[in-house]
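Many introductory courses stop at the sequence. We go one step further.
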Amino acid sequence: MSYQTTLNTRPFMYIETKKVAQRLQDGQTSAEVRTAALTQNFLQLPSRARQSAVVNTILKRLATLDDYLVHQFLVADRETSSLILVYALMISDQLFQEFMRQIYFQKIVSMDTALTKQDGLKFLAEKSTQSTKVAQWTAATQSRLASAYLQVLRDCNLLREGQLAKGILAPDVARYLQQHGEQVLYEVLIGSRV
């Protein structure tokens, strides 16, 4: 399998994603948001290349969400909106989704709640045997990616002081995802089989 990851040194980009989602909610098109990101630098990034890369990544993530989830991302409590962003990350980044399913979810359902960077590195080592793309990544790249995965979990409060926690969604969003979302990803978000 060929993987492309959208995670980088600032993998979660919660505030930046909120800014882009608000512009889309206000009626701007993706093209208008891209242009504004480059001309107005509303994401406050240091270079034009970085502005372009980040806005494209965020738009790709938000494109995986329907109007209801984008709206809930903007108005829900921080924990719910963070989990909606994790849901979008899992849909838009296959390798991250597999990490969440094979490492986070398996650990949380088996009540093995300790998670370290080493778990991420083992996951990537296994993936390198299955994917020539991952196998070509340097040890430094794999190390940064393992760190990025843990940072996402910390940023959305699924990892606290090295211990995994289950996600808690607002009841209306939980019902919506259960009825309209991908079942497996919903189960990952809440850390339990339904």
